[in-house]
Design a protein that fits this description.
Elements lengths: L2 H4 L11 H16 L2 E2 L2 E2 L3 H14 L5 H56 L3 H11 L3 H8 L4 H29 L1 H11 L3 E7 L13 H5 L3 E7 L2 E3 L12 E6 L1 H11 E4 L10 E6 L10 H4 L1 H5 L2 E7 L2 E3 L12 E6 L1 H12 L11 H16 L2 E3 L3 E3 L2 H16 L1 E2 L2 E2 L4 H30 L3 H27 L4 H11 L4 H6 L7 H34 L1
Antiparallel strand pairs: 1-2, 3-6, 3-7, 4-5, 4-6, 8-11, 9-10, 9-11, 12-13, 14-15
Helix pairs in contact: 2-3, 2-16, 3-16, 4-5, 4-15, 4-16, 4-17, 4-18, 4-20, 5-6, 5-7, 5-17, 6-20, 7-16, 7-17, 14-15, 17-18, 18-20
Length: 541
């Protein structure tokens, strides 16, 4: 019998699955969003673009339940991340940084309402343009709670690329024009720098860093040790070995004196070998205030290296007898997990960070989110009021994030865990919205979109310019820190890379991180306020 006759025919059938389509679009969208030009790309919005393309060509049916779950996960994690520092930020940085970000958002609100009202832009399109100009996913989600999805997504789709370009051009041009002033501020602010030396002094071989008086006498910190092909953090219990490459940080003369005593300087970059991070941590835990580093044992307890302390306008390398003050900014080097532990210890009341997401605690937070979102409160003369699932998720996240623990339920998870949940929620939401609005978006494109693109540039650039002028010339915030506040207020991280080409210190990052959690929440409130203002103007008209 011929071989072909004994073959059993096999037919493969594929049944369309909504979940298969959803996660295929997530995969494609993430790949597209990760494509960058000079560090700038679409990021998580790539999922929205991929879903809109699929929605236009194939008209897949969205799953509303996944959109609701996505909103809740995203805003819940925003609240959890912002909660620990949201309320404290007003007390610690209220005089300058928070005031400046409030100015930025106030100008944005007035500017957006004025542009929408003067040019007769549909409210949904205008709020979408604002969210796109700010490249803000929370603003987009907030706008979708009040206006038709098609209008909001159309405005966001038009405004996002032009808002992105506007922000980049503004910061690039401003930094170029103010480069000399920024450099002068850097020179006048700090003389600390880093250098790498090879350990050739045999007397130091086998000794612990804390036992080497040379480092204490000259106020020089060892921020990292390159041994072989791996970089490890340096703590007081680190053992020195001949041939180690030590990264020293301190005042140039002090670094040169210590370096000359241990060996010769080498031109070696730690970045390509290192898995270490550098993080600026604000001291807010009153239990550690006025206690010395020796008493706290931070180097031994967390195995992280403290390279400098910024206190007001003063920046210095701390020694073991240095006491911490409330509001100090501590710059530490270590692995992400070590820094998470150190940040929790110094920055907030002490609760142990869970190494994984506790499912029971997550279920409790989700329950609170849906319970708060489902409450309906009748207001006399105003009708019924409800937070909705978006507001409920945000409030629940803020509550658990702020207190850290309620009963047996934990509200602080590892940063990478909340980041994954947040990105997953945003991706699920974007897929469903993109599938629903893809076709209407393309059909709405006409000559009017050119005007909308111009409006998006106005919505991005005018608030930045106003915030910079007030922040720098009225509030006396240094240029680089002022731009850090602006990037944090607009939740626009790529702008930091432009700033750090002139000022590579931690100060722009500290300014950014000080206002970022506040801006995440306030931009959601701002969208709601703009919607109410526009509704009032429409009723009055």
């Amino acid at each position: 019998m011929p071989e072909a006759d004994v073959l059993i025919p096999i037919q493969i059938f594929f049944q369309k699955s909504d979940l298969v389509i959803t996660f295929l679009l997530v995969l494609i969208g993430i790949a597209f969003g990760n494509l960058t030009i000079k560090g700038v790309g679409f990021g998580s919005s790539g999922v929205l673009i991929a879903a809109m393309v699929a929605g236009y060509f194939y008209q897949f049916d969205p799953l509303p339940i996944l959109a609701d779950l996505g909103i809740v996960l995203f805003l819940l994690c925003v609240g959890l991340e912002a909660g620990p520092s949201f309320f404290r930020a007003f007390k610690q940085h209220g005089r300058r940084f928070i005031t400046n970000v409030l100015v930025l958002l106030a100008i944005s609100g007035v500017n957006t309402v004025a542009v929408i009202a003067l040019f007769g832009i549909p409210v949904g399109v205008g709020l979408g343009l604002f969210a796109g100009a700010f490249t803000s996913s929370p603003a987009l989600i907030s706008a979708l709670q009040f206006s038709p999805e098609q209008e909001v997504i159309f405005g966001y789709g038009v405004g996002y690329p032009f808002g992105l370009v506007g922000v980049i051009l503004f910061i690039s041009i401003a930094v170029r024009l103010l480069r000399d002033k920024m450099a002068a501020e850097v020179r006048g602010r700090s003389r600390l720098h880093a250098a790498v030396y090879k350990l050739d002094n045999e007397e130091l071989h086998g000794r612990l860093i804390r036992d080497v008086e040379l480092f204490q006498q000259h106020d020089v910190a060892v921020s990292g040790i390159l041994r072989g092909l791996s970089v490890r953090s340096a703590s007081g219990s680190s053992v020195l070995q001949k041939g180690d490459l030590l990264r020293l940080e301190g005042v140039p003369e002090e670094v040169e004196a210590v370096g000359g005593a241990i060996g010769e300087e080498v031109q070696e970059s730690f970045d390509e070998h290192s898995e270490l991070d550098t993080r600026s941590i604000v001291v807010e835990n009153t239990a550690v205030v006025n206690r010395s580093l020796r008493d706290l044992g931070l180097r031994l307890r967390f195995n992280a290296s403290l390279t400098r302390v910024m206190r007001g306008s003063l920046e210095f390398v701390p020694n073991e007898d240095e006491t911490l003050a409330y509001g100090d900014v501590v710059v530490a080097v270590g692995t992400p997990y070590q820094l998470d532990q150190l940040e929790l210890f110094l920055g907030h009341e002490h609760h142990t960070v869970q190494r994984r997401v506790d499912i029971g605690s997550l279920a409790a937070i989700l329950f609170l989110a849906f319970a708060l979102g489902g409450l309906v409160v009748p207001l006399p003369g105003l009708g019924n009021f409800s937070l909705g699932i978006a507001g409920g998720a945000l409030v629940a996240g803020l509550i658990f994030g702020h207190f850290g623990r309620i009963g047996n339920f934990i509200g602080r998870f590892p940063r990478n865990a909340t980041a994954v949940l947040k990105e997953l929620g945003l991706a699920l939401f974007f897929v469903q919205v993109g599938l629903e609005t893809g076709q209407s978006f393309v059909e709405s494109l006409d000559f009017q979109a050119i005007y909308y693109a111009f409006y998006a540039l106005l919505l991005a650039v005018v608030p930045m310019a106003g915030s910079f002028l007030i922040g720098h010339y009225l509030l006396r915030i240094p240029v680089s820190e002022c731009f850090g506040v602006i990037c944090g207020g607009m939740t626009f991280t790529p702008g930091l890379d432009i700033i750090r080409r002139v000022d590579s210190s931690e100060r722009p990052i500290v300014a950014y991180s000080s206002v970022y959690p506040v801006a995440l929440i306030l931009v959601i409130v701002l969208v709601q306020g703009m919607h109410l203002a526009l509704a009032a103007l429409g009723a009055a008209g």
